[in-house]
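Justification of resources, computational component.

The compute hours requested in this renewal are based largely on the per-chain cost of generating structure records like the one below. Each record pairs the submitted sequence with a full structure-token output. That output is archived, and it is also reused by downstream analysis tasks.
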Amino acid sequence: MPPKGVSFALPSEDFPEELKKQVAKRMVSLEWNKYIDPELNNARRQLSDAFATAPESLIFTHGSDDAIDRVVSGMKPTFVLLPRGGYPGYSRSAASSGSRSLVYHPESTSDVLVGMLEGCVGTTLVFLCWPGNPLGNYDQLNGLREIVANSDRVVVDLTYLNPLTTEFVAILHGIIQAGACAAFSFSKTLGLASARLGGIVLPEGHHAVLSRGEHFPWTLFQLCALETALCSEPETKQLLARMVTNQKKVKAALISSIEEVGIPVRNADADSFLSVDLARLAGGVEVGTLKFPVGSKQYPSLDVLRLDVSQANVSWMQQVKAALT
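The structure output for this chain reads:
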């Protein structure tokens, strides 16, 4: 520590050595001649306690993408509303289930989504993403109850929010109380992409949406990584808290370095990325004969460039500033 920050898809900072040692210790101490509890009841109780939700409302999945697939395949809706430029798994799941995809602009207001839903004949499923990817969408959360009231099911994808933070829990409660489902993942924010750990939290009365009949094929590594992340030992909790705090510091430094060269930030809701106008940084930054390859992903259809919140990008932008001055 401190971490270098994360790239969008995979962390550029590896899982901390202290936590790796705890995962390895747990794996060695487990009884390898016994089957793993497919329901992971102990981990479910721990996480539901952290979320302050009922254990039966929580279902573990093979990352948030598996949660999305299971909701779509279980429901087989007539229409799936999904954000333009968002996770392509939404449209893949819709196509595999024979559903028709309706694409909305990620900054669309809740009224726009309700209007789209009113024109749909048949069952409807809506995917929202918080924090917005790659653009913000405050109005959609504020109008969530209205969207839920006009659709058959709503899933808010919380992949880009650390599930072990008070911010996550507060937003989760608002989603559940509005009657929507919430998908989550440990991949993007904890450096656990290889473990494929995620899940979905269901609102009251929706517990049959995802059947536990097909048990998750847990491995020892996944189990130990999950239990380490949920560990109650003070040192572990402090280390995880430092990861969150330091990532926010990297984001603040990146925002400052971008604004110092006169480029406005369009969206900074997530800790793992922020967005600027595509034309301002497309392909990197050029100052005279110098070019700075800023780590990013382009969204031409939205005219947006999403920057990784990483120490590497902070360093690049600081070099840009020095070159300009």
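The first strand starts at residue 58 and ends at 61. Residues 110 and 142 are 8 Å apart (CA to CA).
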